[in-house]
Amino acid sequence: xxxxxxxxxxxxxxxxxxxxxxxxxxxxxxxxxxxxxxxxxxxxxxxxxxxxxxxxxxxxxxxxxxxxxxxxxxxxxxxxxxxxxxxxxxxxxxxxxxxxxxxxxxxxxxxxxxxxxxxxxxxxxxxxxxxxxxxxxxxxxxxxxxxxxxxxxxxxxxxxxxxxxxxxxxxxxxxxxxxxxxxxxxxxxxxxxxxxxxxxxxxxxxxxxxxxxxxxxxxxxxxxxxxxxxxxxxxxxxxxxxxxxxxxxxxxxxxxxxxxxxxxxxxxxxxxxxxxxxxxxxxxxxxxxxxxxxxxxxxxxxxxxxxxxxxxxxxxxxxxxxxxxxxxxxxxxxxxxxxxxxxxxxxxxxxxxxxxxxxxxxxxxxxxxxxxxxxxxxxxxxxxxxxxxxxxxxxxxxxxxxxxxxxxxxxxxxxxxxxxxxxxxxxxxxxxx
Amino acid sequence: xxxxxxxxxxxxxxxxxxxxxxxxxxxxxxxxxxxxxxxxxxxxxxxxxxxxxxxxxxxxxxxxxxxxxxxxxxxxxxxxxxxxxxxxxxxxxxxxxxxxxxxxxxxxxxxxxxxxxxxxxxxxxxxxxxxxxxxxxxxxxxxxxxxxxxxxxxxxxxxxxxxxxxxxxxxxxxxxxxxxxxxxxxxxxxxxxxxxxxxxxxxxxxxxxxxxxxxxxxxxxxxxxxxxxxxxxxxxxxxxxxxxxxxxxxxxxxxxxxxxxxxxxxxxxxxxxxxxxxxxxxxxxxxxxxxxxxxxxxxxxxxxxxxxxxxxxxxxxxxxxxxxxxxxxxxxxxxxxxxxxxxxxxxxxxxxxxxxxxxxxxxxxxxxxxxxxxxxxxxxxxxxxxxxxxxxxxxxxxxxxxxxxxxxxxxxxxxxxxxxxxxxxxxxxxxxx
Lengths: 433, 433
What we know:
Two copies of one chain form a homodimer.
Chain A: E1 2-11, E2 19-28, E3 31-36, E4 46-49, E5 53-57, E6 59-64, H1 80-93, H2 97-113, E7 116-122, H3 126-136, E8 139-143, H4 161-173, H5 176-179, E9 181-189, H6 195-208, E10 211-216, H7 220-230, H8 234-240, E11 248-252, H9 258-267, E12 269-273, H10 275-280, H11 288-293, E13 298-300, H12 313-327, H13 336-343, H14 345-351, E14 366-370, H15 382-388, E15 395-400, E16 403-407, E17 410-411, H16 416-432
Parallel strand pairs in A: 1-4, 1-5, 6-7, 7-8, 8-9, 9-10, 10-11, 11-12, 12-13
Antiparallel strand pairs in A: 1-2, 2-3, 5-14, 14-15, 15-16, 16-17
Helix pairs in contact in A: 2-3, 2-16, 12-13, 13-15
């Protein structure tokens, strides 16, 4: 299948030609074939006329728990501990494969409609999520979030369910769909595990050349308790066990120290900023300007919908670009361009994926944003409009891996009515009924 | 004209019956006739079937400068002083009536599509704005934002253009459309005027029974310079001249003192919280939880689109509900319900308008929000979904003063293509060409 986008405004995120007006972008199979201002030679299976549309890289959500879409708004307004122990954990205990599939599909529908083409997801029953992602057509780095609450002395990889789950997930799914699915090694967090699991996970990643995904210093309590327990921050104590030898994605990083930032820059650990979730749960405000200064690669995530309560990455982009201006009282902190980088090129770099840029040879993960909407008129600056005025609802087309999977409200890989019925008639009664 | 909404979920903001499922809301002329769970007697000109829709009060934007929609994203990324002096002021100097009309209409279109039914606007060429609001069909409190940079000794009301403008605006527009348009007395800010104008404006409001609209303590510099100049905060020094004798709406209040909060509670001065603009311009974070504790009435505003860059009040509602949780690290700070109150009942109270609640006898300012959208499924809690998961684009209908002015993307009082052409072919070349 070949597709030609013509007459688009292309925001490429490619420094060589950042913004092209009246541009042509050709897609051949799963890759971008050409990007320029003259019509490429040849015939195309489909020509998309993009007058008034901005074409840009699809957005990458670097931290989420997609089946938690089932818990949107559930137990909202309670404090964190009460919310987790009285609402979220009891609900999660009732989840089965079918409910996870329904929740994942619902979350994917929202993500696709708001311009996301790749996610990093950590949850349970991960194989089920992998199948939903494959069917939906976007890309994903998936992980199980290893937990170990036992006595460290008793740890045995053979007896550790989460180790078995990680191995099984890797064998079944790593590299599936020509790299559409990648499996990350993962530790849920420093506070929900101990040294033997860290060592095992570091070795597992090293041996199988996997990425690494961990919750890091989300709350002040988590960060301080690690200092008490180990005399080291969560990031630093995991480093001692080799967890970051292949880099990784560290979700939240609200409370990381200056030394942590240096370590992240040195070891290529990406800080995944989740500003909505961090505000909503009362976790705090990550020191993103300082991280950027320290040379840390920063990406964005929505976290689970249960603590957001949306999966629209445009919200995170806007909040990332304005929150730090306000909190540090510096209107130059985190520019519009930097916020867009976090959702595209920085995220692709974090995952080692050949996407996040509109350039020949890159995977054709592309979205169109409809700049004919009243809320995007006038357009003095494409990036300012994308960051501060656009919302997910302005996305008019989503192409993932060269395939148009969403266009003007219509889903081509998902049956939203069927998903809704699975959610409302099966999953919700099972969990909350 | 009579309209019956049936089978809606009604979030009324009326403590007597806050949430009604499968409800009927009848509208007769410009007012709500009945609200309940049984079908009211009689025939209706139109019956709107609202299955899966949430009906709620239209949103009230208590601080904006609607023609500044023309400057969306213009000069973004510069510091405040550079932005104002090199971008905004030169652009504003070129505005004429026709450009103001075009910018106002464009802004109103965005507001109407995202669920706003009433605004508080301060700008120049205000009569032109009044006409656009009348035509669009929503309600507005309009003001000129009085400035006086001359020597206080030389002040003469007869020679003060801004005083003349306020009088003229009042004579021509106050009460127009049976109260659709109200004119507020106004002072742009403490730092852009002096005592004789404050005295004149206080007397003008008192004599003509007008509301009062002023920018208060938006930046730290403004607040501290007032303390230096007068030994008093902006709010307190204006109080000394009787500016708040009839209450009023004080925009921003980022830096108000504890004593200011007590004064606001006592004098019925509403704090208009503009969280997006305050973050984006690097002004800071207003102490909203403290204001609520002190008994201050808090409402919401978008400020001008030039510093937002959106007019979607759902963004302010979500940010108001999560920003203070994050900054104060208290997940219970500013509840979803409180954020909804700010955009509805609190705002109506601030303006003395008989709206903001779905109850018999109230003005029929009503919106429908489409809870069939994937981003609003499931619905464990209507308020949590409205605040944290809904966006302006989920508004499927806007009824202002009993008249349906917008439905599913279609505007009935505005010609968006004509507005766009006025903006792009006339206003933008005039100002920026």
